Amino acid sequence: MRKSVSAMLLVAAMLLMAALTGCGEDKKPAEAPKAEQKPAAAPAPAAPAKEMQVGFVYVSPVGDVGWSWAHDQARKAVEDMDGVTTSFVESVPEGADAERVIQNMARKGFDIIFTTSFGYMDPTLKVAEQFPNITFMHCSGYKTAPNMSNYFGRMYQARYLTGMVAGAMTKSNVLGYVAAFPIPEVIRGINAYTLGVRAVNPKAEVRVVWTKTWYDPATEKEAAKSLLDVGADVIAQHQDSPGPQEAAQERGVYSVGYNSDMSHFAPKSLLTSAVWNWTPFYKDVVEKVRKGEWKSGAFWPGMETGIVGIAPYGDMVPQDVRSKVDARKAEVVAGTYKVFSGPVKDQNGAVRVPEGQVLSDQDMLGMTWFVEGVVGSTQ
Amino acid sequence: MFLPRVVKRQEPLQWGSFFIFAAALVVSLGVSCALLAVHGKPPLKALAVLWSGGFGGPFALEDTLLKSIPIFLCSLGVAVSFRMQVWNIGAEGQFALGAVGATWAVLAFPGLPMWAMMPVMFLCAAIAGGLWAAVPAVLRLRFGMNEIISTLMFNYIGILFLQFLVYGAWKDPTSFGFPMTPIFPKAALIGPIAPATLGRVHWGLAVCVGVAVLLAVFLKRTRLGFELLAGGENPRAARYARMPYNLLVLLVMTLCGALAGFAGCIETSATVNRLQPSIMVGYGYTAIVVAWLSRLRVGSIACFAFLLAGLRVGVEHLQLDLQVPAAFGGILEGMILLSVLAGQFFDRYRFTLKGRS
Amino acid sequence: MDMDTALLLSILAATVQSGTPILYATLGEMFTERSGVLNLGVEGMMIVGAFTAFLATHITGNPWAGVLAAGLCGGGLSLLHGVVCLIFQGNQVVSGLALTILGLGLADFLGTPYVGITTTGFQAFAVPVLADIPVLGAIFFRHDAMVYLSYLLPPLFWLFMARTRPGLALRAAGEHPAAASAAGLSPVRIRWCGIFTGGFLAGLGGAYLSLAYTHLWTNNMTSGRGWIAVALVIFAFWRPGRAVFGAYLFGGVMALQLRLQAMGANLPSSLMLMLPYALTVLVLLASSARGGGRAAPAALGVNIEPEE
Q1: Concatenated DSSP letters of B237-266
Q2: Which residues are CB-neighbours of B177 under 8 A, at least 6 positions away?
Q3: Domain assignments of chain C as residue spans, ordered by start
Q4: CATH label, C18-295, candidates 3.40.50, 3.30.1380, 1.10.3470, 1.20.1530
Q5: Domain end: A151, A173, A207, which one?
Q6: Where in the cell is it found (chain B) (predicted)?
Q7: Do A333 and A254 reside in the same domain of the chain?
Q8: Which of A207, A367, B167, B196 has the fewest CB within 10 Å, making it most exposed?
């Protein structure tokens, strides 16, 4: 019994100290908290009226050369804007912890908070309701509030184009796709890739292996190898690690990258990559908020804005393939070609999009079925 | 030669655990700070941020209290089984199954009013978590299977089972295919006690208090509870005294599973409002640290659960303010546990400089 | 060679590869347990090994420096377990758990800046002559140097335990420390050696993940392999030969579950990923039912009290 008492006393003492430090903290005026703050006051006379603080919440370490890395490149560009400071928290688990992290950011007076993973949707919404004066931007979800937008990019357009390249380069007509989690974003990418493959090579099939990981090079590389073992000769992936690329290069077959240009990981194997470029979009949001022109909504910009694209082709891609893909790219950018335009059949051969129709955004966002030509489970 | 010699203490050190914990805390904070300094972060400022983030102010205390609720419930169960020398490290998986059980109740009987929904939810969570813990117990008693490994493997399997459900049959048709169940109906949501004064602190806290009181009464006032304590302190003697050892092991494991199940139920209903894979953040493992630090005593568990929850919350501020990786929390936890373990030596032994007699 | 045979061979070759890190860790833990100390911190020592191997290779450019660093750091971390259990008489179960928590935290904390970098590491090469043996050559002799190194360990382990004086002393410390002490040995000193060697090998197992299996580092890349190793020690009845069997069994299941997906088995991926863990339970159940627990060193997990 005495021991519990002593432990309680200890906690009581700590609480007292907490109260004291709390008071001490209050007396200090909000001195610039960020070590990385730029030398303030740009010499330009028309300096922006307000110092903006922009926060980013990432689901994985920024070094992962994948998803969070792509967002962080844009954060650095935002940091370089006049009168803007940024901060970020990485490896934030989705769920209850995320809510607390976002809330802490809000309490510290950030003006805009970007939350960049699907699992942050409900937490972002909850915090947004408590802090109506702060702008929240949630990536890859579907909920909005007066001060919260959701946004994403039409990555499937880039996926489709990389699929065309892969479909033209395969010899075995078996393509492998190492995929993270069976969620619509990933399924949509696999479908678009497969449509691209079969647009140039109707006999080809795409085999899918789920790893249930975003960044686990060992598992992801092994998954790529397992696809190679069943005869795949082009490996594409929806992961944050270059593990699949490594496996492809070691076996001397081709691969397609994702997130960023992965050519330096596998120069001999990489055909091209489907890449993100968040910079223009993020700068635009910050500008709009500063000018008071920001409005809540659901933003889903595509290739025409440059938010998604394909990285330069590898040397092995022949000229006729390049020109074919470039021509289709021009049509996608111009809006004259839609990736999910009918007829599109699903895995079982049932028509999902009839001839002459285009799949709605709503249906694309909630995609849980595979198109014809994909071999694998959607769970 | 007068080398220091180890001598067994005649009676336990007075106020021992307090001194040991304080010393261990100083040691582990010191080592961690050295690490920070090597990393090029200001160690003292980091400590201040850690402190104010976890305990300094009403928001911090609210966050910490919320986080300590699931940790507390899990470690109660872990502590009881550790007392029996049953090394159940499966609270994480039992937490997952509790969440699954509660969610099943909500999905199966969506129309129940709150007064019926809550007991059904908690009952299902306790049954699911309890059964998940009872299986390794039976395996140990029947086949002598090592429960450390079996409970740990059941953690992995339980979490994957949760994923299997949420990615499959339980997926919300209106969630655009994302892996989560629908948001629970109002009747299935554990609400805040007093939003105006206590913020987001919810009725799960009351459950904690209730469970703790019941458990304390059970351990101190019933024959079975007494046997449980005695059985743990000396299993061989307990067996000679014809205590129902097998029954006790089964009981503590199931109890632990049920308590972790409660935690899973509360976390799902009160914090996340639906079942999704991201509810798993390692409370079950923190619970082991808490259970051991508190020397398996109910009162101390509350304190240490609060303390470690504060540590976890404070680490997030450290990341936001100083870009210190969140893994710092793990280092602190591991160091504290190791140094407390080492420090407990002085509870039983002392050094003397006297020569051999 | 037709498609199916080729696929089978590639699965078996992948089995050896994914079994290797587990084999290192299992043998390490077995060594420690033979000396009477239960160290549940394998997962922590492995991840620290994986990180330091990557870091040292990244700095020096020589993967063998990485292997050495991994062994030393894995062993170094295990010495903390020695301090707690051998000097301060702490509970071995809890100390091992703490070591896992600490190791995972340390590696993650120090390793974050190195996520996303590739390093040189080990490359596969065919062993001359041996690689041309039909079937066996394709399965066993077209890997990297660390796999070949792992082939030497089980026989060495057995020789050491069964045929050498220090091996006998180690077993004495694990079976009957008081008798060992009476025979003029120092069981505590022997246990220090047992703990360090176990940590060294666990570190090597981690190094395999970041230097050979892939050439990348990430936190949590051990993903439970350390715990599987602890289970395999029990499964193997503390004997190195059975450890090889167990480690490859696991490697096989890990390799197989991904290939089942690749072949188009239409099963939910969560269930497939459960396979290795479910197998651990079954394997352990089988060996426990056969009385495997009785093969444990008699003084396993029991601290040696300081003399008054």
Answers
A1: HHHHTT--HHHHHHHHHHHHHHHHHHHHHH
A2: A183, A184, A187, A366, A367, A368, B171
A3: 18-295
A4: 1.10.3470
A5: A151
A6: Cell membrane
A7: yes
A8: B196
From B143's Cα to the closest Cα of chain A, the distance in A is 33
Average pLDDT of span A172-186: 91
Residue B192 has pLDDT above 80, yes or no: yes
Distance from CA of C117 to the nearest CA of A (A): 8
| Yes or no, beta carbons of B316 and A18 under 8 Å apart | no
- Best B165, B320, B324 residue to mutate vs chain A (most A CBs within 10 Å): B320
In a domain? residue A144: yes
pLDDT tens digit sequence for B321-357: 888 887 888 898 899 989 888 888 887 777 766 555 4
**Distance of alpha carbon C300 from alpha carbon B85, whole angstroms:** 15
Amino acid C254 reads M
Q: What is the mean pLDDT of residues A214-219?
A: 83
Residue A260 in tokens: 């960023």
In a domain? residue A163: yes
- B123 has a chain C CB within 8 A of its CB: no
Q: Do B334 and C105 touch (CB under 8 A)?
A: yes
Q: How far is A55 from chain B (nearest CA, A)?
A: 9
**CB-CB under 8 Å, A223 with C216:** no
The amino acid sitting at A76 is K
Q: Identify whether residues A117 and A168 lie together within a single domain.
A: no
Choose among B152, B168, B328: nearest Cβ to C109: B328
Segment A9-27 mean pLDDT: 42
How much is the mean pLDDT over chain C? Answer: 89
Q: What is the CATH number of the domain that holds A347?
A: 3.40.50.2300
Helix (H) or strand (E) holding A67: helix A67-79
Structural domain containing residue A201 = 155-276+306-375
Q: What residues of chain C score a pLDDT lower than 50?
A: none
Binning pLDDT at 50, 70 and 90, where does residue B14 land?
low
Contact of C280 with chain B, judged by CB distance below 8 Å, is answered with yes
Q: Return the partners of chain B (3 or more C-beta pairs < 8 Å).
A: A, C
Distance of CA B262 to the CA centre of its chain: 12
Contact at CB, C263 and A225, closer than 8 angstroms: no
DSSP-derived secondary structure letter, B272: I
Q: Where are the domains of chain B?
A: 71-309
pLDDT at A24 over 50: no
Kindly report, residue by residue over C56-71, the tens digit of the pLDDT: 999 999 999 999 999 9
Residues A70 and A209 in one domain: no
Residue A146 and residue A159 in one domain: no
**pLDDT number for residue B240:** 60
Probe site for chain C from B338, B344, B345, B348 (most C CB atoms < 10 A): B338
Please state, in angstroms and rounded to a whole number, the distance separating the CA atoms of residues B250 and B256.
10
B210-249 tens-digit pLDDT: 999 999 888 888 887 877 777 666 666 666 666 677 888 8
Residue type (1 letter), B278: S
| Cross-chain Cβ contact C223/A216 below 8 Å | yes
Q: Say whether A188 sits in a helix, a strand or coil.
A: helix
Chain A residues within 8 A of B15 when measuring between CB atoms: 2, 6
Residue A165 forms part of a structural domain: yes
Q: By the 8 A CB rule, do A367 and A184 touch? A: yes
Query: What is the tally of structural domains in chain A?
Result: 2
Residues A120 and A200 in one domain: no
pLDDT tens digit string along A342-351?
789 998 888 8
Contact C270 B89 (CB under 8 A): no
pLDDT higher than 50, residue A11: no
- pLDDT at residue B201 tops 70: yes
The tokens 């949760």 sit on which residue? B162
Q: Concatenated DSSP letters for B28-63? A: HHHHHHHHHHHTT--HHHHHHHHHHHHTSSHHHHHH
Quickly state the pLDDT bin for A91 (edges 50, 70, 90).
Answer: confident
Mutation target to probe the A interface, by most A beta carbons within 10 A, among B300, B318, B347 is B300
Token pair in block for residue C143: 């890997």
- As for the ipTM of the complex, it is 0.88
End-of-domain residue from the set A108, A136, A151: A151
For B337, the closest of C101, C112, C269 (CB atoms) is: C101
A137 and A176 fall within a common domain: no
Q: Find residues 148-177 of chain C whose CB sits inside 8 Å of chain B.
A: none
- Residues in C closer than 8 angstroms to A63, CB to CB, are 112-117
pLDDT reading at A37 higher than 50: no
Residues A120 and A241 grouped into a single domain:
no
Asked if residue A105 lies in contact with residue A55, where contact means CB atoms within 8 angstroms, the answer is: yes
